Structure formats: structure tokens, C-alpha cells
Amino acid sequence: MRRSSDPRPEIADESAWWRDAVFYQVYVRSFADSDSDGVGDLDGVRSRLGYLELLGVDALWLTPFYPSPMADHGYDVADPRDVDPLFGDLAAFDRLVAQAHEHDIRVTVDLVPNHTSDRHEWFRAALRSAPGSHERERYFFRDGRGHAGEQPPNNWTSVFGGPAWTRVPDGQWYLHLFAPEQPDLNWEHPDVPADLARTLRFWLDRGVDGFRVDVAHGMAKPRGLPDMDPRAAVPGVLHDNAVDPRFDNDAVHEVHRMIRKVVDEYPGRMAIGEVWVKEDERFARYVRPDELHLGFNFRLVQAPFDADAVRAAVEHSLAAVQPHGTPPTWTLSNHDVTRHVTRYGGGSLGVRRARAMALVQLALPGVVYLYNGEELGLPNVELPDWALQDPTWLRSGRTERGRDGCRVPLPWEGDAPPFGFTAGAGTWLPQPGDWAGLTVESQLEDPGSVLSFYRQALELRRSHGAISGDEVEWYGAPAGCFAFRRKGGGLICALNTSGGPVPLPPGEVLLSSGPMDDNRLPPDTAVWLV
Ligand code: NOJ
Ligand code: MG
């Protein structure tokens, strides 16, 4: 039911709109800059809403824009209920939401409940207080091991490298699963859930359509903080609670039930969790009817460009959520992983394969998340050492290059950097000089561009009722290929990852990811048929 105070009268109340939506992840720092400081901001996003409507996406996910010292580019939140001056202010946020809704685009925002910034008022108070104080109880402060407490309290490592513990001047240690500037919150302390509920209502009352929950498999830590199996500390993997007590503890589901309760007070709003969990059964627990509406599924990010591997990833993902009535989600790239054009081999081959995988992703039932720039076919950028800013680079002793290469500011127009991203002189990460052919402006005019291809695919997906039918039916296909149809829908999607052309399944070609070869499907190509 629509409440009379609802600030979103312009959006029709289709309460399960998110079940087959195409979300577009805006990495706010890198999307568009309105104030010439070289860093993307909220007014920059607003200035490009026309583009997003033209592209044909249903909703945005905005990465954190809250006040932050930016030790992890905003995932270190100092105040979850305000806007960092770097990105604008609350009025700019309200303008963005109102105008996005006028464009029929919904807006979701990031929540970071696992940790705060070390500049959050709670952590500053904890540092000023004595061991054992109420203020320290909101985090994990512990005495160290060893006779003088000089060893960390357990062997946990930080996801960004090095120990997950940092020592404070009075000798205690505090826990941070990420950077030292991101102390982990203690979810057993009543202030912590109470404050998150306040944050949820704050943004819901401002009209947001949903949330993306950061590290949704984090939050709860096992009593006694037992050591981990050191072999579990491999970066970039799906976590397995059987060997890694840092993540996916049962008590985390209480947090999600709380989030769901609050979100459900507001009709038509949703939450998706970032769930890096290995076992399907354990993943499924996050998307029960009283927990998150959706869970990010990273299996396509991890699958190589190989029909068998992609099919296995799809089948796994469907099996994990569909029995629970939850739509699956599909994602190829985000701000934490190497862009898929590069993962698939880079250059024109990488782009060809990325286009093929876009057709697969957009033909599957459920929800799609696109990462800004993938509709332009952007590759990962090899940045020079001096430009790197990711804490992963700094904390790994400069061995892991980190995630900056997928975060380079978007090219909008013109022949040279900053390609219309900013009216200022520089961009926060340098753009390659040879991106003129990848700009939005140049691609909009070119019917053969990646952007034109995405627009066509998104348009067809919409006009075919999001391609209808929840069940996926597989056909027999030559080695290195697959073909599936959505039961109840007429469309067939075929992918060829073998080295040569293969016969096409019967039907009329609606859209192909690349040039066709008579009645054959060329390698590194996918097609939609009716
Ligand atoms: C996941 C976010 O996507 C990533 O960018 C961030 O560094 C970590 N969570 C910590 O918040
Ligand atoms: Mg700016």
C-alpha cells in the first residue's frame, strides 16, 4: 500500500519489480564528475540519467557516497546517514532520486554493516576509552597472545592481506577483516542493529528503492574467535565456513531477518546481499522469505569462457535459489574484479566473448547486474604503479595490484582524456589515451558498437516480457557449445565457445553477439533465436 507520505509518487507500485530487473552498478567515483575535481559525484550521475534511460536499465546501485576518509574508497563509512562533500550533499541525493524516478529508474544504495571507518564516532570513542568499556564492546577489542600480549589474539588474516588485527597504544588489539581503517562491528552489541535500523529508515524515508548489503556473509563472528585454517586465506574465493570461521556464521541470519523486517515496512523495496559463500545450500539460506530478497551470485565471474563451465555455473545458481522461489542473479563484472573483457582474453577477442556472454546473461531468468562501462566494452586498465590506490596494493607489500584497473573513470566523449568525464584537468585514476573509440558519444552513433548492441539486447529483453518463463531447458549441442530455452518463453539462446563454427539450432535469429556465418554459429559468439 502506498503511504501518503511516500516521496516516490511517480513510480508505479509493482511491488516485485526487482524479480527480473536489470540493475546498473554506478561506481560513483568513476561515473561522471560535475564539479571538476576529477572524482565522480551524485550530480554527475544525475546529469547522465538520460543516458541510462536510453541504455534501458531499470535500477541503479550506487556505491558508497557517505562521509568517509576513503581508505577503501567509501567502504570505510564514518557516518552512514550523510553524503561526503566529495560526492555532494543530501540535497544532491534527493535531487538524484527524484529525477531518476522521473526517468523510471529506481535507485538502490550500499549498506556497510560489517564494519565502520576508524573515524566513525563510535570507534573514536572506543579508542579514548579503557579496555572492557562499553565503547570498546561495539567492536572486537581483545588482549593479544604471548606473555606480553605482543601477538595478535588469533591467526585471522585480512582480506586485503596481512593480519586482521591492529594494536592500539594501550596494548589491546582490534579486529578488521578488511583494512585497519575498517574495524569490524560487534553485532551482539544492541547499539549495532539499532543503528542499522535507523540507517535503513533514513534512506527508505528519502525514497530509495533498495539496498545492496556489503559483505552480507560477514557480520557475525563465532564466540571465542577460534583460529582459521591458514589454507582458507586465499583471496578472491567463495568462503567455506567449515574451514574459515571468519565468514558465513549462522548468527548472521539474524541480521538479515532484521534488515528484511525494516525493508518490508516499505512496500516495493528490496535488498540484495553480497554473499561470497561456497556451498549452494549455505548460499540459499541468505535468500529465505524472511531474509534478503536477492543474493549476488558470483559464479559467472569465476567461470572461464567455456560452455561447460558456464552451464555448470548457471545450473548451480538456479539450483541454489529457485527451490526457494527466489530469482537468481547474474553478474559478469563489478568494482572488485578484473573486467570480463580482459578475463576473456582482452583485445577484440575479449570484446567478442564479452558480447556473447552478455546475451547469455540477459537471456537467463532472474536479475542482471551490469557494471558501469561494461556496456562500452571497457577492458581492465594496466595502471602504472604510481597511480595505484587500492588498499590491496598497499597492504600486500605491492605484490597484488588490486582493483583500481576496473575502476578507471568512464569515457563519455572527445578524443583525449578526460573524455568528458570531468571539466577539470585530471581524473582520480588516469584514463588510457586510446579510449576515443570507446566513448559513449562515438558508440551511440555506431550501430555496430558494444553500446548499440547492449541497447538492442536490453530493448528485446523488455519487449519479450523479460523473456518470460522461470525454468531453463537445455538442448543437446555440439562440444564446446550450449543452447537453452526458457520454458514458457519462445526464445532460445545458443553459445559457441568451441574453436570453430557449428550448426545453428532451428529458428529465426533475433540478435547475435557478432557477425554470423550463413547458417552457422561462429566461435566466440552467442545468438538469440525465436
Ligand atoms: C566488498 C566491496 O565490494 C569492496 O569493494 C570492499 O572493499 C569490501 N566489501 C569491504 O567493504
Ligand atoms: Mg566531483
Describe the structure.
Belongs to the glycosyl hydrolase 13 family. It is an enzyme of class 3 (hydrolase). The longest helix is centred in the C-terminal third of the chain and has 17 residues, at 347-363. α7 (191-205) packs parallel to α8 (252-264) and α13 (347-363) packs parallel to α16. The two termini are 39 Å apart. The protein has helices spanning 28-31, 42-47, 49-55, 90-102, 121-128, 134-137, 191-205, 252-264, 280-284, 299-302, 307-321, 340-343, 347-363, 391-395, 440-444, 450-463; strands at 22-26, 59-62, 106-111, 141-142, 165-167, 173-175, 210-213, 270-273, 294-295, 329-331, 367-371, 472-475, 481-486, 492-496, 502-503, 509-512, 520-521, 525-529. The protein has 530 residues and is of the alpha/beta class. The chain binds 1-deoxynojirimycin and magnesium ion.
